[in-house]
User: Which sequence fits this backbone?
C-alpha cells in the first residue's frame, strides 16, 4: 500500500502567506518578496510530507488566493472587463480578478465569490460567455511541478476537473449551457497534460467533487466523455480521479466504468460506499482505490481501529498494491500543526490531529497494516486510549443542558404573531424612513484595535484600560454613523476577534487553539473554535457594549449576534452526537442572549446566519432533514422576543434558489444578503418566490478595496426598487466591514447614504 494527500494547506505555519499578500497589496513588499514567501511555503510543505513518509505528494495545491481562480488563469478564462490590465503583469491581473482594482484610469470590479460546496472556503466563480474561448495562459502548474523536481520530489499535480470547473461557474448571458463549452476547454487540459508528461509526471489528480452531486444525464455524459478522451489521448497517464465531501451516489456506475488508474473515495463522509464499490459488477479490480479514511474537514484524531477494518475489507478484494491510504479531501480545511499548541487543555489536546498529525496518521496506518508493524503498535495503543477517554470524559457532558433540550416545545420556535402583524408594530416603534440605511455589524479593526486586544490578553493592559479604549472606539463609530446619516447604527464589534470565536469563548463546551488557522478566502484566515462538549451560556455575552452604544444615541442600535447554524458550521464540531442536537444547544444559548438584549433596550437584534446555505447536504435527498433542524434552530434563537422587536439576519455569498422557501420559514423580519458582485442577480429568486419579509440587498462589495461610486450604488438600488416593494427595501453593504480600512469605508458609506436619500426623494416625489 502507498500513501497520498489530496492537498495541503497553503497559508504557512504562521500565516506567512496572509501577511505577505497583505503587505504586497499595501505596497510594503514587492512582487519578488511575495514570490519568495510563496516558494518557501511550498518547499516546507513538500519537504515535510517527504520527511513524514508520504509516497505521492501533491503539487499545484498552493494558491495565492484560490485554486478556482488559478484554474481560470490557467485556461485563459479571463472576463473582458480585465482587458485593460497588462497581461504581462500576472499578479496585478490575478488580484484584480479576485479583489477588483482602482488604479490610474482602471476601475474594475472583482469576480463573484461563493462557497466551495458545503465548506466555509470561498472560491472565485468562473464567468462564461456563449462564444467563450480558452487558451493556456498561466504556467503555474508547470512551474510548481518543476519547483518540486528541483527538491528531488516527483509530485502528483492537482487540477480541478473540467466538468467541475464548468459546473461551478456561471453563464453570463443566455442561450447556452456552460457544459456546451467542454469541447473548447478540453484541448487546453490536453496541453497542460502534455507538458506535465514531458516533464515526467506519472500521476495527475483531477478533482471532480461534482460527482458528489445529483448530476443530470447531460452532466454524467460530460464526465464520461472527458475521461474517455483523456485516456485515449494519453494512454500512459495515470489519472487519479478524486471525488470528496460525499458518496458517488447515482454517479457510481458512471465513475466505475471510467478509464482511470485510481478512484478516490471519501470514506469519512460516506463509509458505506466501499461496500457498494467492492460488490458492484462494474468494478474493475485492476482499478486502484484511494481510501480517504483520515478526515480532511475536522480535527478529531483518527480511530485507527475503525480505519484498519475499512482498509482490510478493501484489501481482501484488491491487491494491496492497488490501494492508497489518503486524506478524505484536501487538508486545506485543517490547521497546520498541533505541536504548536501549548495552552490547550491536555485532555482535549490528546483527542486532536491537525494537518501534520493527519499526515502522520496516514503513514502510521500504512505501517500498521504491514506484517512487520512492531515499531508502530505503540501508536495504535495510544490512539485507542485517546479515543476511549474521549467517550467517557466528564468535560463533554452536562446533564442540565441535555434536560433543557429534551424539554423544548413547538412554541419555542415560533414568534408571538405573524410578520404582517409584527411589521406594523415595528414601524410604529422604530419610525424608520423609506429605504432605511444600516451596516451589517462590524467596522474596521485597525492594527491599533487589534493591538489593544493582544495587550489585554497578555496582561499589559488592565480590564479598565482596555474597556476605556473600546468605549472610546464605540463612541467614535456612533458619532461617525450619526454624522453621515445612517438610520440604524451598530456598535462596531471592536471587542470581538471573530464572529464565531468571540461567542465560543463565552460559552461552555468550547476550546480554543492558538495557531489553528484555516483559510476562508484569499488572505482571510479564521481560527475555528473546537466544539467538544455540551453548550451553555452562563452570563450575557454582548449586552454590555450593545447597551452602552444605545445609551450614546437616540437612533436605534442593532444588537449583533452570530446564529446557531453558523457557530456550528464554523467550528470544529464534536463527532459523538448528531449535529442537530448540538445546534439546538447553541440556539438556546443565543435565545438567552436575545432576550437579555431586548430587556436592555435594544429594539433591533441581528442574528447572522451566513452559513445556513453552506450546511446544506450535497445530495438533495438529504436536504429536507437538514433544513428542518437548521431553520428550527434559528427560530428557537429568535422567538423569545416581543412583536415590536425587529429580528434581522444576514447571509452572504450563498445561492438561495433551491432553499428560498426555507429562508422564508426562518421568519426573520429583515434579511440582508450579498448582491453587489452578482449585480442584484441573487434578488431574482426572492422576486420569483415573492419573499414576504423585508430585504437588504448589499450594494457595496466589502471584499474589495475599491470604493463604489454614487452612480454605481444608485444603479443597484434602482434595480432592487424595480423588482421589490419599496416598503421592504433596506440599504446596506454586502457584509461586515471588519477587514476594510477606515478611509475607504467612510467614503463608501457616505455614497451609500447619499444614494438611499436620493432614491427616497425620487420615490416620494413620484408619490
Assistant:
Amino acid at each position: 500500500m502507498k500513501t497520498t494527500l489530496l492537498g495541503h494547506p497553503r497559508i504557512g505555519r504562521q500565516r506567512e502567506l496572509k501577511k505577505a499578500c497583505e503587505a504586497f497589496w499595501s505596497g510594503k513588499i514587492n512582487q519578488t518578496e511575495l514570490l519568495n514567501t510563496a516558494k518557501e511555503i511550498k518547499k516546507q510543505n513538500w519537504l515535510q510530507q517527504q520527511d513524514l513518509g508520504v509516497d505521492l505528494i501533491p503539487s499545484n495545491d498552493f494558491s495565492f488566493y484560490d485554486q478556482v481562480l488559478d484554474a481560470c488563469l490557467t485556461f485563459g478564462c479571463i472576463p473582458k472587463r480585465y482587458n485593460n490590465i497588462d497581461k504581462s503583469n500576472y499578479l496585478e491581473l490575478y488580484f484584480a480578478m479576485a479583489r477588483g482594482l482602482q488604479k490610474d484610469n482602471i476601475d474594475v470590479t472583482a469576480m463573484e465569490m461563493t462557497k466551495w460546496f458545503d465548506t466555509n472556503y470561498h472560491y472565485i466563480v468562473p464567468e462564461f460567455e456563449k462564444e467563450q474561448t480558452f487558451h493556456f495562459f498561466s504556467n503555474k502548474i508547470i512551474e510548481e511541478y518543476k519547483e518540486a523536481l528541483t527538491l528531488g520530489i516527483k509530485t502528483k499535480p492537482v487540477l480541478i476537473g473540467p466538468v467541475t470547473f464548468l459546473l461551478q461557474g456561471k453563464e453570463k448571458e443566455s442561450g447556452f449551457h456552460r457544459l456546451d463549452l467542454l469541447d473548447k476547454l478540453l484541448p487546453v487540459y490536453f496541453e497542460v497534460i502534455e507538458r506535465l508528461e514531458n516533464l515526467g509526471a506519472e500521476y495527475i489528480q483531477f478533482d471532480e467533487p461534482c460527482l458528489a452531486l445529483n448530476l443530470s444525464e447531460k452532466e454524467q455524459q460530460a464526465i464520461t466523455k472527458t475521461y474517455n478522451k483523456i485516456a485515449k489521448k494519453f494512454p500512459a497517464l495515470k489519472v487519479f480521479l478524486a471525488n470528496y465531501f460525499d458518496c458517488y451516489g447515482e454517479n457510481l456506475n458512471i465513475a466505475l466504468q471510467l478509464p482511470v488508474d485510481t478512484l478516490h473515495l471519501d470514506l469519512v463522509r460516506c463509509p458505506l460506499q466501499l461496500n457498494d464499490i467492492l460488490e458492484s459488477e462494474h468494478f474493475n479490480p485492476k482499478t486502484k482505490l484511494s481510501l480517504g479514511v483520515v478526515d480532511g474537514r475536522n480535527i478529531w484524531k483518527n480511530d485507527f481501529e475503525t480505519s484498519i477494518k475499512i482498509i482490510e475489507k478493501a484489501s481482501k478484494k484488491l491487491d494491496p498494491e492497488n490501494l492508497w491510504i489518503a486524506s478524505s479531501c484536501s487538508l486545506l480545511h485543517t490547521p497546520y500543526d498541533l505541536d504548536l499548541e501549548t495552552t490547550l487543555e491536555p485532555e482535549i489536546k490528546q483527542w486532536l490531529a491537525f494537518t501534520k498529525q493527519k499526515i502522520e496518521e496516514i503513514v502510521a496506518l500504512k505501517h500498521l497494516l504491514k506484517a512487520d508493524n512492531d515499531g508502530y503498535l505503540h501508536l495504535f495503543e495510544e490512539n485507542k486510549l485517546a479515543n476511549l477517554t474521549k467517550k467517557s470524559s466528564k468535560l463533554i457532558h452536562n446533564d442540565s443542558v441535555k434536560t433543557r433540550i429534551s424539554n423544548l416545545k413547538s412554541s419555542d420556535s415560533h414568534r408571538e404573531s405573524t410578520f404582517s402583524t409584527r411589521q406594523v408594530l415595528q414601524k410604529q416603534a422604530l419610525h424608520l424612513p423609506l429605504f432605511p440605511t444600516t451596516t451589517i455589524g462590524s467596522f474596521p479593526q485597525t492594527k491599533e484595535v487589534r493591538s489593544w486586544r493582544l495587550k489585554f490578553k497578555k496582561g499589559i493592559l488592565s480590564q479598565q484600560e482596555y474597556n476605556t479604549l473600546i468605549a472610546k472606539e464605540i463612541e467614535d463609530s456612533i458619532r461617525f454613523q450619526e454624522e453621515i446619516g445612517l438610520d440604524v447604527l451598530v456598535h462596531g464589534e471592536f471587542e470581538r476577534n471573530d464572529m464565531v470565536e468571540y461567542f465560543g469563548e463565552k460559552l461552555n463546551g468550547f476550546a480554543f487553539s492558538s495557531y489553528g488557522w484555516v483559510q476562508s478566502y484569499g488572505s482571510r484566515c479564521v481560527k475555528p473554535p473546537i466544539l467538544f462538549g455540551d453548550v451553555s451560556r452562563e452570563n450575557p455575552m454582548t449586552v454590555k457594549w450593545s447597551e452602552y452604544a444605545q445609551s450614546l444615541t437616540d437612533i436605534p442600535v442593532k444588537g449583533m449576534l452570530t446564529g446557531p447554524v453558523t457557530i456550528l458550521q464554523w467550528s470544529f464540531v464534536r463527532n459523538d452526537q448528531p449535529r442537530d442536537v448540538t445546534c439546538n444547544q447553541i440556539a438556546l444559548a443565543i435565545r438567552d442572549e436575545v432576550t437579555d438584549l431586548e430587556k436592555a433596550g435594544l429594539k433591533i437584534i441581528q442574528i447572522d446566519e451566513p452559513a445556513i446555505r453552506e450546511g446544506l447536504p450535497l445530495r438533495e435527498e438529504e436536504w429536507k432533514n437538514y433544513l428542518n433542524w437548521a431553520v428550527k434552530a434559528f427560530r428557537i434563537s429568535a422567538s423569545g422576543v416581543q412583536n415590536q422587536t425587529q429580528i434581522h439576519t444576514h447571509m452572504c455569498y450563498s445561492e438561495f434558489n433551491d432553499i428560498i422557501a426555507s429562508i422564508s420559514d426562518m421568519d426573520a423580519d429583515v434579511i440582508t444578503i450579498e448582491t453587489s458582485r452578482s449585480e442584484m442577480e441573487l434578488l431574482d429568486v426572492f422576486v420569483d418566490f415573492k419573499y414576504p419579509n423585508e430585504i437588504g440587498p448589499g450594494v457595496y462589495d466589502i471584499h474589495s478595496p475599491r470604493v463604489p461610486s454614487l452612480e454605481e450604488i444608485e444603479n443597484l438600488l434602482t434595480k432592487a426598487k424595480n423588482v421589490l416593494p419599496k416598503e421592504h427595501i433596506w440599504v446596506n453593504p454586502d457584509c461586515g466591514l471588519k477587514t476594510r480600512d477606515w478611509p475607504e469605508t467612510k467614503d463608501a458609506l457616505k455614497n451609500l447614504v447619499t444614494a438611499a436619500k436620493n432614491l427616497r426623494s425620487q420615490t416620494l416625489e413620484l408619490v
Remarks:
- The mean pLDDT is 95.
- The chain is about 40% helix and 15% strand.
- The chain has two domains: 2-57+150-392, 426-766.
- The longest strand covers residues 530-537.
